[in-house]
Amino acid sequence: MSGDFCTQRNLFGGAIVSNVPLRFEDVSNIRQVPDHQEVFVDPTRDESLIFELLDLKTDVADHGSATWFLQDLANEQDAEGTMKKFAKAVKLLVRGRVWL
């Protein structure tokens, strides 16, 4: 998405603001989206951006939360083997204080 022209979009009723490339359309204009999600699509590239609010897991430390939620998603999708690909990226994101 580097080089894309972006616009600020209010997420979750304005509680969060994020830059989203102009080419992405708000899915809520097309169909119903759950309250805990904001979904944008670029149908010409078959790409999606999904922002999702997750429950607080008091038994998971902050520094392990991104990995925990990715592992949970992988388990639900029967894709446990793909977690190895994401492990390094998660560590880099957490070190940079960019939380998933």
UniProtKB/TrEMBL annotation:
A Pfam family per the record: Mog1
UniProtKB keywords: Protein transport, Transport
A Gene Ontology biological process term: protein transport
Source superkingdom: Eukaryota
Keyword Protein transport annotated: yes
Keyword Lyase part of the UniProt annotation: no
Record PANTHER family: RAN GUANINE NUCLEOTIDE RELEASE FACTOR
UniProt similarity note: Belongs to the MOG1 family.
Name the UniProt record assigns to this protein: Uncharacterized protein
Taxonomic source organism: Castilleja foliolosa
